[in-house]
Amino acid sequence: MSSKYFGAIALSGVNKVGQAYCPGDDEFPSFKNLGVVEFVDRVAEEIPEGDRGGLGIIFTLFGLMPQFLVTSIFKFLEWSWKKDVAQNLITRQIRLGLRGIAFSLYYSGLKGSQYQGKTPVELIGFSLNVVRT
Questions:
Q1: What's the CA gap between 80 and 88, in Å, rounded?
Q2: What is the DSSP track for 23-63?
Q3: Angle at the Cα of 62 from the Cα atoms of 17 and 97, rounded to 5 degrees
Q4: Domain total of the chain
Q5: Rounded to an integer, what distance in angstroms lies between the CA atom of residue 98 and that of residue 104?
Q6: Start-to-end C-alpha separation, the chain
Q7: Which range marks the domain in which residue 12 is found?
Q8: What is the pLDDT of residues 6-62, one digit of tens each?
Q9: Angle, nearest 10°, between helix axes 67-80 and 89-106?
Q10: Residue 20 covered by a domain
Q11: pLDDT digits (tens, 9 = 90+) for 66-113
Q12: Is residue 49 included in any domain, yes or no?
């Protein structure tokens, strides 16, 4: 697996971030098993270049950490954004950005080349109805 924007360690970080938000259960696949990290460039293309560089650094740092630590950081982010303190502005932005990337990939309806099961979109029975006028 390769990316135009992120190295191998950063891609590992994308998987760890996704696992923190979408760990999977008996019914739904985990982020990593779903294999949607293969499509991270689709999301990254829409991110401004300067922000993409910073994101690569964050993903690389997460790629170097063990999964339990990444998950603990995200539990902290989920808790801290609710506190109405000016210092939490940065944690709120990080939380929103990383969460958006993880959920955008997980609920995209896509699946990695190695994954054979149903996607989360198929499991929840979602279908998009487009009405053209």
A1: 7
A2: ---SSSPPHHHHTGGGGHHHHHTTS-HHHHHHHHHHHHHHH
A3: 50
A4: 1
A5: 10
A6: 41
A7: 8-124
A8: 999 999 999 999 999 999 999 999 999 999 999 999 999 999 988 899 999 999 999
A9: 120
A10: yes
A11: 999 999 998 887 777 666 666 677 777 888 889 999 999 999 999 999
A12: yes
C-beta atoms surrounding 2 within 10 Å? 9
119 is written with which tokens?
A: 């996607």
Residue with tokens 């801290």: 80
Contact 34, 120 (CB under 8 A): yes
Residue for token digits 């993880």? 102
In a domain, 69, yes or no: yes
Which tokens in the block code for residue 38? 């293969």
Closest by CA to 97, choosing from 51, 133, 28, is: 51
Q: In this structure, is residue 132 part of a structural domain?
A: no
Torsion of CA 121, 123, 125, 127, to 10 degrees: 20
- Return d(Cα 53, Cα 34) in angstroms, integer: 25
Tokens of 52: 């993409």
Query: What pTM, to 2 d.p., does this model score?
Result: 0.87
* Rounded (10°) CA dihedral 78, 14, 101, 55: 90
